[in-house]
Amino acid sequence: MSSLTVETIEITEIKPGMSQAVKDCISGTVGGIAQVLVGQPFDTVKVRLQTQSTTSPLYTGMMDCVRKTHSNEGFKGFYKGTMTPLIGIGACVSIQFVVLEAMKRYFTRMNHKKLQDGEFLSNGQLYFSGAISGLANSFVSGPVEHIRTRLQVQIGTGFNGPFDCIRKIYQSYGISGIYKGQVITMAREFQGYGAYFLAYEYLVQRAMKENNLKKRSELPTWKVCAFGAAAGYAMWFTIYPMDAIKSKIQTDGFDTHTRQYSSTLDCARKTFAKEGVPGFFRGIGPCLLRAAPVNAVTFMGFEMAMRVLS
Question: By the 8 A CB rule, do 196 and 130 touch?
Answer without folding.
Answer: yes
